[in-house]
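Tutorial, part two.
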Amino acid sequence: MTHEAAAIELTEVDVAYDESLADRMRTALGSEPGISEKKMFGGLAFMAGGHMVIGIIGDLLVARVGPVQYEQELSRPHVRPMDFTGRPMRGYVYVEPPGFAADADLSYWIGACIAFVRTLPAK
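Running the prediction step on this input gives:
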């Protein structure tokens, strides 16, 4: 394998999330203070106060809704428990692409996640 081929292969492995979704999220989060980006879980996470707010793995949205809203959010269409490790992570859900296809739906998830994370003390 040539050096160029290896670089192309590495780049494809590194990008384990939907770039167009990342751009939509950056736009939606643009006016929110204190948001940063961090590569996590093989995807991309948006952080506030040292806590993950919301993220992307592949084409899935990873929404941190907190333990109180968890069951309610699971009842929404296109939502399932986040089971990245093989066990559900209470307070986090995966949202399938139809669940955030509309900008209003993406805004809902971002708002719900920010509302929860803003209740946590900064790390």
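The chain has one domain: 16-117. In part three we will examine how such features are distributed along the chain.
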